């Protein structure tokens, strides 16, 4: 851990110059309080540094929250062990999951999947923000239960005791992206009308108390809930695929769900610790985690590695300096275009040896070498989380 500026604290031992400079610009905003925390997986991102925890007093920067509102993880520990799967054709399980869950950007359901899907849709229809979502993405109901592309994935994994886990990473899909993009533009227009100079246009903000702020918060909360239910919907389908594959009911021994791109009001324990509030300022403290999870004391969390590497089930240590936060994954070391130039398909095949996956060049930019070493990330996070389980993949499902 090191102080990079008066309001910038860093836990990343691997941090590129561009990411550091980007974080410094964000930390210079006048409403940052008490400080910005960079997680061990920090790297340059759109809007703000991925792997950053951004507390803001009386304002929110929509681009700093990001366009994949509510992106996060869900995991289920099943009652199965590795021995139960031995000799079974895992390719059939992978193919069944690929049929049950729409994959890749722009791919959604053709119809409402089943009664459970309908119940989740009804829940979202009755939440404040549904009208806004419907106006900007009329097909959002068909998006529920779809994975997306990039680093989103579905995996079957084994822990250190050979117990079988289902692991999934996704967010608020196209509807969340469109809502975020609209409010990012609203924030930029608002700052321009108010003649507010910005160190970076991506740091445009909305001030608490304005109609623009509350409209964003309404849509943000709706999209965060959509993302949570989207993961639940997909996990239910994956569990059904596993049940059919095994020919018997599968119990869920443990379920963990967590956002890692989201905003909420700062918790009471953090407010007390940092003696809220700075003199002369009004409003709530809003805590935006862009590529970071809640690591409050004892809180379960999920930190995935990259495709082909280990993932972790953790509990938070409640580190106040990190604002009760921890990394959300490995964090990119090479951009997608740079990864495609640097790595080969043969290297990807080698990295995925022993894992059932769809063999394609499309995943070359997701090769483990494009990401930071997850072991180093977890070493940097030693004072933020405690590792409960270490998972290794045996089935990987991704969209192009």
Which strand-content bin applies to the residues?
A: 25-35%
Q: What is the string of helix and strand elements?
A: EEHEEEHEHHHHHEEHEHEEHEEEEEHHHE
Please bin the fraction of helical residues.
Answer: 25-40%
Low-confidence stretches: none
Computed structural class: alpha+beta
Distance from N terminus to C terminus (CA atoms, Å) equals 36 Å
So how many helices? 13
Average pLDDT confidence is: 95
Based on Cα principal axes, name the global outline. globular
Q: How would you summarize this macromolecular structure in one to three sentences?
A:
This protein is of the alpha+beta class.
Tags for this model:
13 helices, 17 strands, alpha+beta, 7-stranded antiparallel beta sheet, 6-stranded mixed beta sheet, 400 residues
Structural features, described:
The chain is an alpha+beta fold and 400 residues long. The protein has helices at residues 17-27, 62-65, 82-85, 90-100, 115-125, 130-136, 140-143, 173-193, 211-246, 268-273, 336-342, 345-351, 374-380, and strands spanning 2-5, 8-10, 36-43, 50-57, 59-60, 72-81, 153-158, 163-170, 206-207, 252-259, 261-265, 285-290, 292-294, 300-303, 311-316, 325-327, 385-398.
